[in-house]
Amino acid sequence: MNSKQLAKEITNSPEAWESGELGQSLEHVNVAPSKLVSDIDDALGLQMISIRLDKELIDMFKLLGGKYQLGYQPLMREALKRFADGELKMVALEALEKQSLARSKLRDQSNHPKKEKVAKAA
What we know:
Blueprint: H1 3-6, H2 14-19, H3 34-44, H4 55-68, H5 72-111, H6 115-121
Helix pairs in contact: 4-5
């Protein structure tokens, strides 16, 4: 019996990573230096945070992550980014509408001066 026959084959799947079949072997553990971790986060524009979420919400993201073949954390990042982008667009549109309304009022005032101003000019 050769070493290939003895080795248990584990499929590379999100489930294998989640269950710990992949990625948790102590013989292959090597902690990255903090400088390297910091450099990687900086290069990717990532910042570690701590957040408490409902287990049900996490399970939903894991389910959706399986459908889209994406880990649940990157999927959460994408969902949060989409939400924030949408909110910022709504805020920008509201600001543009207010600005447009203000310009419209100014135009109306300059095209239709009040009677007092016309009387003083005469």
